[in-house]
Amino acid sequence: MTLSLYDTSVASYLQILGGVSNVLAKGEQYANENGLDLKDIVRCRLRDDMAPFSFQVISVWHHSLGAIKGLKAGLFQPPPKMSGLDYSQLRGLVAEAIAGLESESRDAIEALSGKPMIFRLGSTEVPFTTDNFVLSFSLPNFYFHATTTYAILRAQGVDLGKKDFLGALRVGA
Hints:
The protein is mainly alpha-helical. It has one domain (about 5-165): Four Helix Bundle (Hemerythrin (Met), subunit A). It is built from eight helices and three strands, in the order H-H-H-H-E-H-H-E-E-H-H. The protein has a three-stranded mixed beta sheet with strand order 1-2-3. A hairpin with a 2-residue loop joins strand 2 and strand 3 (about 125-130). Helix 1 (about 5-35) runs antiparallel to helix 5 (about 85-100), helix 3 (about 55-60) runs parallel beside helix 5 and helix 3 (about 55-60) runs antiparallel to helix 7.
């Protein structure tokens, strides 16, 4: 089997975004059934020195849909400042990422393979090819923030398991 840029990016993002969407839905249901304030979850952190739940979800959005936009532009930067988002708006970002990625064509993404791109953080620029950016930077960040989103909700008592996180597996031929 030959992996393509589309398979490693869009298809992988969509699989886990489906899981994150499910995890967020279960988190909201749990909060409603157990009298938890969703505002507290949005601000929740696993540790004091970690970014809050809201940043984790924003980063899932940014390292999926934003990464594809970065591939097209040849430039990727940290996510925009998005303070004050509530739980519903965070769920909306995940839905936006899913819809945006579902609209991408395989051919359009494949046409981006091997092109140069830059990750810019302040005055620092890191050169990548589009493929190496996805494999060595975007996907690891995407999985980290998706996992942290899951972990924060799990730590709040939400009944979640690995199957909730994994999304729809790509099985068959």
